[in-house]
């Protein structure tokens, strides 16, 4: 699980410029395959071997010209609740504004690591001007220029120091699956959880302590042991209303980060919408397992092919990652709840699939021999060897003479074959072609 860093501050101080620099625009904003506009304010980054997620809270502000003080206060409060570290951006050109002082007041009460980034320090002359930010009462600050990048390396050094080293994964160790039930407001998440675990919730343990344990709760249902990661249905926070887009995004990001399998609940009467796509994409990007539950199926009028057609439409929306189980349920009539949990457990197991290298070579080299990459500019790609990489989640490498000539369609062909032969249903996989 990655640490989450929230960038907070007034409008126009340079939050999104800093955000873009931190995530290095590694991700295309518009997905070329589906054409969907992705979330511009959430990204992943790494520095000194530490991986983390970055959220630009300002990106979710409503309106642009007016300063919605209440809005900013809410976002800072949420960042305080949900993020692991906070970067508070201020503008050296403006000095400390009343709004900055207000934000600082909120942050002074917080125990999480807080970094003040005095932005727009584009040259040494402005270094001296930054001194006044000591008066925020938050201790030391970093001077940066988000535009030219100076100082951002030092800021990242300081941030990385506060981030725990990546967890060692021990695949032999029996860990309980961690599920997060996510979806739009009113999709039926709480109803599903209540139907599943009952009002009494059969809580076996609720270990407090580390950040992660404190948001896991262990359950047993239908003979399966699993943890449910903190969701709106389990631990409602009253401070902010759920209709705030930022709130749902933040909650979704956090529960996704902390879990192995995402149970994405869709309201059958509304269909798979943009926000569902965003959550799905977050799960895929974080290499988490996914199960889609089409809830409220009791409300849908059914003819012979209704389910099949519905499923096909959803698969169109989630392309190209379509190898995902879709289960039609009703939290109200308790239809297929067993199936839902059984499927989630299966996805959890699929995600741990490890294929021995010799067997993998026997099978996959045969596949690529029968259907080699097309020659490009008279060059023939020869794949000599392949293996599943020793990574936390399924990733594969195909070693060849000319990896740069392997195009996306071929990569997809290999992925589809791999998915036909092995069971990676609900699990994002990555395939690399590497020089050998
Ligand atoms: P946000 O509203 O806090 O997300 O701010 P933006 O990132 O949109 O930046 C607001 C304005 O400040 C833009 O015109 C940026 O080009 C400018 N800006 C951002 N960072 C810097 C910087 O380091 N130096 C200077 N001179 N301008 C900056
Ligand atoms: P949440 O916001 O995602 O937690 O959604 P809720 O669990 O609060 O459900 C929203 C509304 O949908 C409530 O009125 C539920 O009674 C209703 N609902 C949830 N699941 C079902 C279902 O399977 N069938 C029907 N007919 N209604 C449902």
Automatic annotation (TrEMBL):
Keywords: GTP-binding, Nucleotide-binding, Repeat, Ribosome biogenesis. InterPro entries: G_ENGA (IPR031166), GTP-bd (IPR006073), GTPase_Der (IPR016484), KH_dom-like (IPR032859), KH_dom-like_a/b (IPR015946), P-loop_NTPase (IPR027417), Small_GTP-bd (IPR005225). Residues 3-167, 177-352 form the EngA-type G domain. GTPase that plays an essential role in the late steps of ribosome biogenesis. This is GTPase Der. GTP 2 binds at residues 183-190, 230-234, 295-298. GTP 1 binds at residues 9-16, 56-60, 119-122. NCBIfam families: GTPase_EngA (TIGR03594), small_GTP (TIGR00231). Associates with the 50S ribosomal subunit.
């Amino acid at each position: 699980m990655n640490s989450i860093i929230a960038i907070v501050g007034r409008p126009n101080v340079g939050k999104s410029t800093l955000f873009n620099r931190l995530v290095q625009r590694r991700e295309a904003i518009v997905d070329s395959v589906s054409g969907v506009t992705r979330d511009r304010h959430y990204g992943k980054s790494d520095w000194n071997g530490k991986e983390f997620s970055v959220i630009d809270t300002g990106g979710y502000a409503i309106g642009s010209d007016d300063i919605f003080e209440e809005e900013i206060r809410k976002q800072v409060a949420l960042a305080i609740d949900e993020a692991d570290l906070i970067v508070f951006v201020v503008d050296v050109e403006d000095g400390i504004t009343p709004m900055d002082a207000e934000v600082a007041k909120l942050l002074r009460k917080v125990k999480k690591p807080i970094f003040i980034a005095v932005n727009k320090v584009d040259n040494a002359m402005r270094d001296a001007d930054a001194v006044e930010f000591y008066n925020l009462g938050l201790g030391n600050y970093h001077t940066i220029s988000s535009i030219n990048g100076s100082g951002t390396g030092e800021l990242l050094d300081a941030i990385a120091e506060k981030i725990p080293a990546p967890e060692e994964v021990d695949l032999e160790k029996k860990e309980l699956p961690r599920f997060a039930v996510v979806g739009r407001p009113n999709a039926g998440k709480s109803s599903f959880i209540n139907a599943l675990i009952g009002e009494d919730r059969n809580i076996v343990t609720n270990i407090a302590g580390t950040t992660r344990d404190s948001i896991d709760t262990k359950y047993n249902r239908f003979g399966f042991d699993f943890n449910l990661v903190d969701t709106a249905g389990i631990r409602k926070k009253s401070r902010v209303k759920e209709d705030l887009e930022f709130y749902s995004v933040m909650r979704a990001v956090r529960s996704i980060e902390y879990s192995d399998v995402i149970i994405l609940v869709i309201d059958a009467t509304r269909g798979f919408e943009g926000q569902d796509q965003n959550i799905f994409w977050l799960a895929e990007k974080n290499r988490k397992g996914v199960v889609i539950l089409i809830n409220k199926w009791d409300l849908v009028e059914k003819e012979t092919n209704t389910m099949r057609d519905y499923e096909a439409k959803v698969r169109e929306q989630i392309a190209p990652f379509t190898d995902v189980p879709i289960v039609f349920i009703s939290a109200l009539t308790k239809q297929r709840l067993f199936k839902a949990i059984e499927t989630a457990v299966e996805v959890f197991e699929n995600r741990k699939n490890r294929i021995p290298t010799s067997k993998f070579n026997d099978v996959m080299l045969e596949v690529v021999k029968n259907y080699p990459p097309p020659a490009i500019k008279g060059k023939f790609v020869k794949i000599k060897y392949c293996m599943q990489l020793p990574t936390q989640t399924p990733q594969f490498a195909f070693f060849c003479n000319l990896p740069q000539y392997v195009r996306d369609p071929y990569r997809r062909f290999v992925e589809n074959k791999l998915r036909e032969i092995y069971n990676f249903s609900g699990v994002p996989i990555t395939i690399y072609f590497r020089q050998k």
